[in-house]
Amino acid sequence: MGRPPGLQPNEVRVGIVGLGRLGMRHAENLAFRVSGARLDAACALEPDRVETVQREWGVPRGYGRFEDMLNDRALDAIFIASSSGEHCRQIGEALDAGFHVFSEKPLGISLEECRAAEAAVARHLDRVFMLGFMRRYDASYRRAKDLIEAGRIGTPILFRGYSVDPESAIEGAIRFAPSSGGQFIDMSVHDIDLARWMLGGEATTIFAAGGCYAHPEFAASGDGDNLAALVRFDTGAMAFFLAGRTAAHGYAVETEIIGTKGTLRIASVPQKDHLEILDSHGVVRECSQSFLERFESAYLAEAQEFVSCIRQGRKPLVTVQDGTRATEVAFAATRSFREDELVRLS
Ligand SMILES: NC(=O)c1ccc[n+]([C@@H]2O[C@H](COP(=O)([O-])OP(=O)(O)OC[C@H]3O[C@@H](n4cnc5c(N)ncnc54)[C@H](O)[C@@H]3O)[C@@H](O)[C@H]2O)c1
């Protein structure tokens, strides 16, 4: 793949930090598919990944230390796809260094660092900050939101969100467990954000349950392989979240919003495409196997929105406060699960 030569007018020069499972996809999108963007630098702890991106995609500058990339004055924006525990520190440092910032979810893995990130965003209101709640940029979720706003299902009374990783990815999930922050912050944080967005309110009361039904390894991190939470919202609506790691069929992200006059369902069968295979197994509809497959276009759309906001002087839909609030709810759910008690949020 070739990159267009020279800097185009009003082009946003981006440096990405993190070249892991998701960072590589973001990097490729920024290098080749996001209009108005140039991927001019990449930073990761793995020198071979930085070299690969530089050699194969023609990214001019590579860094092993984030601090060094922040000294690259030929960049306009920093795109953070590093490990969750790095996000808030890197957000603050990048904003203070004068860059526009995109950060992957979750905003942070403690409320203190989320609040520090909020303060950094408040210090630099002339910069664009965007958080990667990419489901809001998925066409089906956007349409569901539009239909709710148009009154199509009446008053929304229940949001149900399942986010379950495939059992085939269990080894990585177990390795990741000590640094993930737990299933609610790692998996349900997307559903929590969607529930707030679709229901138009805030969570007030939470009870969570769950356990290690197939993989005892998660217990060492105070986690389970499948957890669920029932939540009351200040609108009076209910929400139910399921987060897990043992879906036999694939990457199971399924959503339902029930209203007084109708119900919306998104991917109630999480199939990868419209193909049906009729053979000795019956009628088979294959499922998506990873977030990269299911949300391919949402990752591109959110990166495009970040770059377009910078070019057009707009602010994105998802704010740093959305990140803090979703983190707060996820932690309340985690506490409820660990302590077996009802948690009230103020
Ligand atoms: N939005 C989504 O659907 C979604 C899906 C998967 C992952 N994520 C989030 O994206 C982030 C990355 O996930 P992943 O699965 O790609 O992780 P990963 O472990 O595969 O990769 C992490 C990358 O960050 C780099 N890194 C970590 N600390 C660094 C530092 N101090 N300086 C420079 N580089 C550093 C590592 O070198 C590595 O390249 C996580 O926060 C995760 O929660 C979001």
Short description:
By secondary structure, this protein is of the alpha/beta class.
Structural class: alpha/beta
- Specify the biggest β-sheet: 7 strands, mixed
Contiguous helical run count: 11
Order of helices and strands: EHEHEHEHEHEHEHHEEEEEEEHHHE
Strand order of the largest sheet: 12-11-7-10-9-8-15
Can you give the mean pLDDT? 96
Rg from alpha-carbon coordinates: 20 Å
- Low-confidence segments: none
Portion of residues in beta strands equals 25-35%
Beta-strand segment tally = 15
Bound molecules: nicotinamide-adenine-dinucleotide
Overall, the morphology is globular
Distance between the termini: 52 Å
Report the helical percentage.
Answer: 25-40%
How would you describe this structure in keywords?
346 residues, alpha/beta, 7-stranded mixed sheet, single chain, 11 helices, binds nicotinamide-adenine-dinucleotide, globular, 6-stranded parallel sheet
How would you characterize the overall build of this protein?
This protein has about 350 residues and is an alpha/beta fold. It has eleven helices and 15 strands. It has helices at about 20-30, 45-55, 65-70, 85-95, 110-125, 140-150, 170-180, 185-200, 290-295, 295-310, 320-340, and strands at about 10-15, 35-45, 60-65, 75-80, 100-105, 130, 155-165, 205-210, 225-235, 240-245, 250-260, 265, 275-280, 280-285, 345. The strands form three sheets. The protein has a seven-stranded mixed sheet with strand order 12-11-7-10-9-8-15. A hairpin with a 3-residue loop joins β11 (about 250-260) and β12 (about 265). α1 (about 20-30) packs across α10 (about 295-310), α4 (about 85-95) packs parallel to α5 (about 110-125) and α8 packs across α11 (about 320-340). The relative contact order is 0.15. The site of nicotinamide-adenine-dinucleotide has 23 residues, from α1.
